[in-house]
Amino acid sequence: QSVLTQPPSVSGAPGQRVTISCTGTRSNVGAGYDLHWYRQYPGTAPQLLIYADTHRPSGVPDRFSGSKSGASASLAITGLQAEDEADYFCQSYDSSLSRYVFGPGTKLVVL
Amino acid sequence: QITLRESGPTLVKPTQTLTLTCTFSGFSLDSDGVGVAWIRQPPGEPLEWLVHIYWNSDRRFNPSLRSRLTITKDTSKNQVVLLMSNMDPADTATYYCAHIPRADTIDFFAHWGLGALVTVSS
After folding, report:
1. Inter-chain residue contact A46 with B109, CB threshold 8 Å
2. SS3 label, residue A83
3. Which of A2, A33, A103 sits opposite B106 (nearest CB)?
4. Per-residue pLDDT tens over the stretch B39-51
């Protein structure tokens, strides 16, 4: 049971915009700890998409963007493409648990 | 270009100790602020952070697993070794090592190895 909550799945048609939420608590995101996002295709390793709430590593398209407000964060994907179908995880730090924590993941389905 | 690769046994017996090696290139574990982490993912489950080691040999452990974990580094070989004792079938997972860059934020995992699937079974 994760301290970060994500919807199990979201879906969208090609070209649309989708958002994936990640909701934390007062001991992690709500305490001001940054949030990071990863994408994982089946059978492969996760890939960093967004770090420190809003920053994109080099090579990540600007179709991906992150935002955060209070204890909640969101990953937005615009111009949805078939290749975006994957699992998306958020990650932060929890001061009560004294550990780095991941969300349970959200499966993005491109219709 | 940063790369990491996990190596070790694919099958261990219950109660045995797992030893996994992460061999990396493209960065130095001598560099200020840099670290290497181990993260695992049971089949069909979310990711779970285990431990990491920094350039200065400082370590951070998942408190729920701390008593079972050992992590060491060999900077000359560009390797980080994870030992996990008293393995149980519940520890069956893909184990990843990941690069932690120096950054003005909480640690994140910028580059990952391909992962090593470890099955615990008698």
Report:
1. yes
2. helix
3. A33
4. 999 998 999 999 9
- Count H helices, E strands: chain A? 0, 9
B20 burial level (CB within 10 Å; 0-12, 13-18, 19+): buried
Quick one: chain A helix, strand, coil %, rounded to 5? 5, 45, 50
pLDDT computed for residue B103 by the predictor: 82
Q: Name the residue among B11, B7, B9 with its Cα closest to residue B89.
A: B11
Q: What is the mean pLDDT of residues B94-104?
A: 93
Query: Of A1, A29, A90, A100, which to mutate for an interface test with B (greatest number of B Cβ within 10 Å)?
Result: A100
User: Measured between alpha carbons, how far is B95 from B43 in angstroms, rounded to an integer?
Assistant: 11
What does the alpha-carbon distance between residue B11 and residue B7 come to, in Å, rounded to a whole number?
12
Q: What is the mean pLDDT of residues A69-88?
A: 97
| CA B24/CA B102 separation, integer angstroms | 16
**Smallest Cα distance from B91 to chain A, Å:** 17
**Rg over CA atoms, chain A:** 13
Minimal C-alpha gap between B108 and chain A (Å):
7
Buried b (16+ CB within 10 A) or exposed e, A12-30: beeeeebebebbbeebbbe
- The token pair at A107 is 């499966």
- Helix H, strand E, coil C: the string for B59-87 is EEECCCCHHHEEEEEEHHHCEEEEEECCC
pLDDT band with cut points at 50, 70 and 90 for residue A95: very high
With beta carbons less than 8 A apart as the criterion, state whether A45 and B96 touch. Answer: yes
